[in-house]
Design brief:
By secondary structure, the chain is of the alpha/beta class. The chain is built from six helices and four strands, in the order H-H-E-H-E-H-E-E-H-H.
């Protein structure tokens, strides 16, 4: 997949709502309503519509997801498709979907613990899981985190892979997290 992560005028096919002052959010919302989004966005939105579960697999970069993934979310999860106020959070437009963030870190579990130098990993998850997924109505499963795989033994890395394979087999039995501030900041 050669996804273009930058949100630009090219995401809108045809005329703009306001050609004097370009506002990406307004223009993509209007384009979505009239069926005027670019083909790559329509293709990605179809994938989301057809999926029951969205798994986002990535390395944690600078306490967030990589730019290409954030660009995917910015461009694909547009107003009208994924959210439309007041239909957000529990009543978001993607409320029949599940999501799971599976990622690796450069730091150890201790670094991302409450009181650790990097802070509780849940603080990092707040904007991604709550601010994006839950805002769109998506129910979020507990994250799958492999801490510092490049700094552990080969045996530990194999254990990480086995744990991930096992989790994938049992995902459908899991309950979503309580995607509230209490879960992240307790």
């Amino acid at each position: 997949m050669h996804f273009e992560p930058r949100a630009t005028r090219n995401d809108i096919v045809g005329c703009l709502q306001n050609s004097e002052e370009f506002n990406y959010g307004v223009e993509t919302w209007e384009a979505y309503k009239r069926g005027g989004l670019s083909n790559d966005l329509i293709e990605e939105q179809k994938k989301v519509q057809e999926a029951d579960l969205l798994i986002f697999q990535f390395p944690l970069y600078w306490f967030s997801m990589p730019a290409i993934m954030k660009g995917w979310m910015d461009r694909v999860l547009v107003q009208g498709f994924a959210h439309e106020f007041p239909n957000c959070y529990d009543s978001g437009l993607l409320k029949d979907k599940l999501a799971l963030f599976s990622f690796t870190t450069g730091g150890s579990r201790e670094m991302y613990a409450k009181g650790g130098i990097s802070g509780d990993i849940r603080y990092v998850l707040w904007p991604m899981q709550h601010g994006i997924m839950h805002f769109c109505g998506v129910k979020v499963l507990a994250p799958h985190i492999c801490f510092a795989p490049e700094h552990v033994s080969e045996e530990k890395r194999k254990e990480m892979l086995i744990a991930w394979a096992h989790r994938l087999k049992t995902l459908w039995k899991e309950e979503p997290i309580n995607c509230s501030p209490e879960w992240y900041f307790k």
